[in-house]
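Journal club prep — side note

Before the paper discussion, L.F. wants everyone to see what a predicted structure for a comparable chain looks like in C-alpha cell form. Sequence:
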Amino acid sequence: MNWIDHALKYSANRRRLFITGAGLAAGAAAAVYAPYALGQAEAQQTTYANPVVWQDFADVEVIRVGDVFYMTASTMHYSPGAPVLRSWDLVNWEFIGHSVPKLDFGAKYDLNGGRGYVRGIWASTIAHRPSENRFYWLGQIDFARSYMYTATSPAGPWTQHAQLPRAYYDAGMLVDTDGTMYVAYGNSQISVAQLSADGKTEVRNQQVFTTPSNIGTLEGSRFYKINGNYYIFLTRPANGQYILKSSSPWGPYTLRQVLLDMPGPIAGGGVPHQGGLISTPNGAWYYMAFVDAYPGGRMPALAPITWTADGWPQVTTVNGAWGQTYPFPNLTPHPVPPLTGADTFTTAALAPKWEWNHNPDNTKWTTGSGLRLQTATVTNDLYNARNTLTHRIQGPSSTATVELDLASMRDGDRTGLAMLRDSSAWIGVRRDNGVLRAVMWDGLSMDSNWNTTGTGTQRATADLCDARVWLRAKADIRPGSGRQAQFSYSTDGSSFVPLGPAFTLNSNWTFFMGYRFAVFNHATQSLGGAVTVKRFEVSTP
C-alpha cells in the first residue's frame, strides 16, 4: 500500500500542557467544552481554544454556503461514513448527518466474509454547486474506483450519484465560478480531472505537478479558486503543508511552503497539517488543520490566515507556534448542542453522532424506547461482531456511562462497553447457565493487516443480582504513551465499583482512527438474545 510506504512517523513534540483555568483567557474554552445555550456569557466570547473540536475528525474539509460552514472528515470502516458537521462561527460544531449512508462497497463492509478495517472512507471531499443549490461528496474506495453522493441539504438524505472508474486518491473538489467541476488528487504525482456537467463521468485528466524529491510526499489535495487564481493545498504527512498556485486549473503551478515542523497547540501532539482553507462572509480567512494526538486520534485545530501581496497564504502564529488560543472570528458566537451529553434513544433514528463498526444488520436493532440490540453474530471475536455502535471520545479525558437492561440476554451472550481500536478492552456482562456476571476483558488485538491476533482474556468478574447494570469507562486520551482507561460498574446507577486493571491505550498511529467508546452485544452460542441500552452518556470532568 503506497500510503504506508510514504507515511512519515508522526512527530511527538512535547510542550507544556495548557491548563484550562490557568492562563486561558475568559471564555476561550466555552465553545469547546461549555454546555449549550450559554446566553449572555457566550455572546461576550472573545477568544477560542484549540483544538476547536477535541474529538477524532481527520482529513477535514470545511466549506461555506452563505453564512453557514460545513465540515467533513474520514471515517474509514465506520458506518454511516463521511460525517457532516455544521457551524456558524468556525468554533462551535454540531453533527447534522453523513454523506455516505451505508458503506455500499462490498460484503467486507458488512463483516460478511471479510472485514474493512482501515479501508472505506479516507480523505474525501465535499462541495456545493450554487447553480443547482446542491451538495456533492466524492471519495475513492479501496484504490479501485471513486463514488459520488449528492444531496439538496447537507443533512441529507444523501444518495449515490455516480461511480467513476478512476480512484481519485485524497481528492479535493472545486466547483468553478462557471459551474465546472474539477478534482485534484494524487500522491506525489498530483493530477487534475474535469468532470462532465452532470458530474457522472470524467472528460479530461492531466498530471499537473510532480513533488520535488527533497520534499518527499505531497497528498491530501484541496482545490480552490481565489481571486482568479487556482490553488491546490497539499500536505506533507505528517509535519508540513504546501500550496500550489496557477492562473489555470491545468497549470503550470508554482509551489510554496506554508508550514513545516510548526509546533502545535496540543501538548504532546503533532504538527497541524492537511485540512483546508475557508473564508468567512466578512472576508477573513482561516486554516482548519488536524493535529495527530494519539491515542485519541486526529483533532481539528483552527488558525487565522493572512495573504501576501502576491497571493500566498500565511498562518498567523503565536510565538512561532500554532496558537493554543486566538481571537474569536469576527462572527457572532453561535452555541450549538454539545458533542457530549446523554442519549436515551427515544427517536426513530439514531443521532448522527453515532457510527457503527462496519455496516449494521438493520433487522437486529431498534430505537424508540431505548436502543434494543439483538445479537447479530455468533463469534468469540469482538472485531467480527456486527452491530457494535461507536461514539467518539471527548478529549483530553472523558467518561462514558451506559445503562443496560439485561433481561433478554441468553446463555453465551456477551454485552458491554469497549475501548475499541486495534488493541481493545471492555467491561460488560456475560450470561452462562442462566447466571449474569459483570466481567472485564483486555488483550483484544489485531496485527498490521488488521487480522485478529487475540480475542482477549477475562481479567475480573463480579456477581450480579439484577438484570439492570450501569457500565463505565473513563478514558485519558491526551497524546502520548501510557495513557489509560479505567472500568467500573454499578447496580444502582450512582455507586460505581472498579473492575479489573487499568487498560493502557495503544498510541501508535497506524490504525489511523483513534479510540472510541463502543457498545456491543454478540452471541457465542446462538442468536436470539437482546439487551436494551436505556441511556448512554459522555461526560467530562
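L.F.'s comment for the group: The radius of gyration is 23 Å. Keep this in mind when we get to the figures.
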